Amino acid sequence: MSSNNNTSITLAILQIQNAFRYPTLILGFILLIGGVLGNILNIIVFIKVRNYKHNACSLYMFVRTFIDLYILLAGLTTRILTTGFQIDFTLMNRIWCKTRLGLSNINSESTYTLICLQAIDAFMCSSPSTGVRQKSNIRIARYLAIGTLCFWCIHEIPYFIFQDLVIVGGTHMCIGTNTIFAQYRTYFTALCINTIIPIIVVSIFGYLTVRHMKTIAVTRTLSSLTRQTISMALFQIFAVLIFNGPNAAWLIYSAVTTNVVKDTYRRAVEQLIASFAATYSYGPYASSFYCYCLSKRFRSQLIVSLKELVCGIHTNQVFPNNQRSGTRT
């Protein structure tokens, strides 16, 4: 009787593994291909138009584009190979085992910090107060972008020390060798820094920005560049909520049920859901271009930039004075 029970559980696990494997793989390829293409187009547009030199929000978007591209190429690609094809380079190379997680965390924490700064800058740009709008400054934005990268590089130094390739029960495993730091990563880095805090910050400042934009007097005083970057930032906030909301719910559930006794079937199901949620969480890194394309002005800039790049057609773009000065009106 017990043998039949075990056989049925094993068959059920195999069935659900097959059911989860292909959707996870398909989602991963969609995010990878669409995200890499989108970020490359973002780079082309930002370099051609050069708004990032005059506007703080555009600078955050420009820096994020390179970070997101790295995360997709180095992080999502290896995840697809691991979950879809059982090729895990962290189990084959000790250096990659020690560096992959740290580098991924540096980039993911940096991009979420820049998204928060982007949301705060959109709030300041849309403020009815001229004094608040003037606080959106390209010089300060440069310092904040550089400071963000430096801070998270220092923060991740322990990962390069404690993460290691070890043998547990005759099996190679790439794990954290320090229990305290492993718990810090699970409960604070993954749950708070990369998930809950960005959701709270972008939700609050996104809501306040929308309230400002409903004021006709404020909207009329903003330059066309400022209105464009504010709308692009709001679309990106929406994407963060869509992709990070389910992942936040799953991480909270995992933290709450850590000490719960689970049977084999439940553990297998949760492992598959965790794998799908981890792949789904790459959405913010792949969706920025498609969020920006909701802006009519960005679509026009994309077409002009591609014509210049592919056909060699140079279009003289005339910008009004208030657009050149970013948020000053």
TrEMBL record:
Top-level taxon in the UniProt lineage: Eukaryota
Membrane-traversing stretches: 25-47, 59-82, 143-162, 187-210, 230-253, 273-293
Keyword set includes Transmembrane helix: yes
Keywords in alphabetical order: Membrane, Transmembrane, Transmembrane helix
GO CC aspect terms: membrane
Cell location: Membrane
InterPro entries with a match to the protein in the record: GPCR_Rhodpsn_7TM
SUPFAM superfamilies, A to Z: Family A G protein-coupled receptor-like
Domain (G-protein coupled receptors family 1 profile) ranges: 38-292
Name recorded for this polypeptide: G-protein coupled receptors family 1 profile domain-containing protein
Taxonomy of the source species: Eukaryota, Metazoa, Spiralia, Gnathifera, Rotifera
